[in-house]
Write a structure and sequence with these properties.
binds nicotinamide-adenine-dinucleotide; binds (2S)-2-hydroxybutanedioic acid; alpha/beta; tricarboxylic acid cycle; L-2-Hydroxyisocaproate Dehydrogenase, Chain A, domain 2; 337 residues; single chain; oxidoreductase
């Protein structure tokens, strides 16, 4: 692996010519992700058809004259893109096309995330950290991690911070609270409709969320019904709701979540959600990239262990983990991963 450049942090963004890329670049260059004291060098990786859009974004970045932005490089070569890279944000992915089955989507993306993982293994800096945004994010991260056996697996993560933030958004509405009032929410499982947004451990201004909901809605049964029938499906299917209302998938909220994921991983946080490579926590099979409640002390996300899990929660977690197992098995059946 190449040595890390200490003068500026090298950030590689794949799919940089796309929608989320455009929403990410300017905020990263402005210092929203790593802070006002860390200069950044940007590497934009695109496929040939996306290079012009990435070049256009680079022209605009230049026109912003951001004090922290040291250098921009645009390439369609993964090895060049990941050379000496400290932070990789893997956004570019193959979207589901008409008539495409899930297995076709997994295979198409394996053809992207396998080679990119290998290029990260060959060229990135020793301190590389990776977040996968492109869908299916968890299994794409698993493929990238499997293709970089010399990089510690805990450097690979997938984005479920958007789901976490969506859950906070729904609770603030229901409880007439501010986002900062809510703590200890958890997203378990896959970044898909099977995910489990879990309030069992959550508190609002220090009070258990379940008690606050019960008080507002007229009892525990009403609170549980709201969670099962409204909160959980609304959060889990929010991606589809955005697509239906907006006409295309989430962009600014996804970019914001990716920035917060990296920011909190680097700066430290006591509690958020991220998909990380399981080492068997909570019975999740080892090697799966699964969302858990996590913390960071600035050197990577660690699963928050020791939480009590009710039978109801266990069933929801198990069904999302079963989907991750099926995705892993599908790519393995294709000879990938
Ligand atoms: P987009 O189509 O606007 O942009 C994707 C870009 O990726 C395109 O410019 C394309 O040319 C590029 N690309 C494709 N293959 C590539 C490759 N092999 N290497 C480099 N670049 C490549 O899509 P978008 O709206 O920016 O969304 C990107 C991905 O993020 C999608 O898969 C979307 O489903 C996913 N997404 C994930 C979350 C999440 O929370 N995890 C949220 C929203 C969207
Ligand atoms: C999202 O959560 O907004 C994205 O992953 C898009 C999708 O397909 O749900």
């Amino acid at each position: 692996m190449a040595a890390s450049d200490t003068s500026a942090t090298t950030i590689t963004i794949t799919g940089a010519g796309g929608q989320i890329g455009y929403a990410l670049l300017f905020r990263i260059a402005a210092g929203d992700m790593l802070g006002a004291d860390r200069p950044v060098r940007l590497r934009l990786l695109e496929i040939p058809q996306g290079l012009r859009a990435a070049e256009g974004a680079a022209l605009e970045l230049q026109d912003c004259a951001f004090p922290l932005l040291r250098h921009i490089e645009i390439t369609d070569d993964p090895l060049t893109a990941f050379e000496g890279c400290n932070i990789a944000m893997l956004v570019g992915a193959r979207p589901r096309g008409p008539g495409m089955e899930r297995a076709d989507l997994l295979a198409a993306n394996a053809g992207i995330f396998g080679p990119q993982g290998a290029a990260i293994g060959a060229a990135a800096a020793e301190d590389i950290r990776v977040v996968v945004v492109g869908n299916p994010a968890n299994t794409n991260a698993l493929l990238a991690a499997d293709s970089a056996p010399d990089v510690p697996a805990d450097r690979f993560t997938a984005l479920t911070r958007l789901d976490h933030n969506r859950a906070v958004g729904q609770l603030t509405d229901a409880l007439d609270a501010a986002p900062d009032d809510i703590d200890r929410l958890a997203i378990w499982g896959n970044h898909s409709a099977t995910q489990f947004p879990d309030v069992s451990h959550a508190v609002v201004r220090g009070e258990p969320v379940i008690e606050a909901l019960s008080a507002r809605l007229g009892g525990l049964a009403a609170a549980e019904a709201w969670l099962d029938e409204s909160f959980i499906p609304r959060v889990a299917k929010r991606g589809a709701e955005i697509i239906e209302v907006r006409g295309s998938s989430s962009v600014a909220s996804a970019a914001n979540a990716a920035i917060e994921h990296v920011r909190d991983e680097q700066a430290g946080t006591a509690w958020t959600s991220a998909a990380v490579v399981s080492t068997g926590e909570y019975g999740v099979p080892e090697g799966l990239v699964c969302s858990f409640p996590v913390r960071s002390e600035g050197s990577g996300y660690r699963v928050i262990e020791g939480l009590a899990i009710s039978e109801r929660s266990r069933a929801r977690m198990d069904s999302s983990v079963a989907e991750l197992v099926a995705e892993r098995d599908a790519v393995r059946a294709l000879g990938l991963g």
